[in-house]
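>> received
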Amino acid sequence: MKKLWWLIPCLMIVLALGLVGCAQGGGQQIISVPAQQNTGIWVTGRGETTAVPDIATLSLGIEAQGSTVAEAQSQAAVAMDKVMQALKDNGIDKKDIQTQQYSIYPITTWDKDENREEIIGYRVTNLVVAKIRKVDKVGAVIDAVAKAGGDYTRIQGISFTVDDPAPYYEEARNKAVQDAENKAKQFASLTGIKLGKPTYISEGAVYLPVTSKAYLSEGAAPAPETPISPGELKITINVQIVYGIA
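>> returned
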C-alpha cells in the first residue's frame, strides 16, 4: 500500500473531473482547449511623415592652453564669458544652455634624453549645448560665438529636431495602422477567410533627426553669414497587429 500512495491524488483529480461533467448535464465532460498563440493573421504596418525642424541644438565651447593650469583656466574663463554673452545677445535663454564637458588635461612630450614623458603645459576644454529656438538664426549664432571666442572657439556639431513631435507621431501611427489593415484584408481575400477583430497590437517607433556637423580647428573662423540648412525630419512608426479569423 505504501508504494501506491502516489495514486491517491490522481484518483481525486479524475473523480473531480467526473463530477464537473455530471454537473454540466448528462455526464458529458466538456474540455476547453486554449487557442494557440500563432493563430490569426499577423501583419506589420509602416507609417511615415515629415516635419520641418523648429529646434536646433548647437554643441560649442572653447579650448585654451597654458604653461600652468591657472593660466589655461584663466584664458578659458575669459573666452567662455564672451561666448556666453554672445549667446545671450542672440536671444538664447540661460535655461537653454547646459554644460556638456569641462576638462583639464596635461600636454606632454617625450624626452628622449631622459627617456620619460614630460609635461609642457595644460589644456582646458569647456563645452556647452545651446538650444536655439529660432532655426533661421543658427548661422548668426555661430558667427557671433566664433567672433566672441576667437581662436579659442570650438564648434562640435549641430542637430535638428521638433519641439513637439506628438502630432507627427499620431499621423505616422494612423498610416501604419491603415497599412497593416490593408495587408490583413488582402491576406483574407487571397485565402478566402473572413477577417476578425484585432487581438494584439505592438508599436515600435523610430525618430530619425537630420544631423549636420561642423568643426572649427584652432585658429580658424567661419565666413560671415554662415549658411545652415535644417532640412526635414522623417518620422517612422512600425506596428504589428494580429487579426482574428471570424
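>> The radius of gyration is 34 Å.
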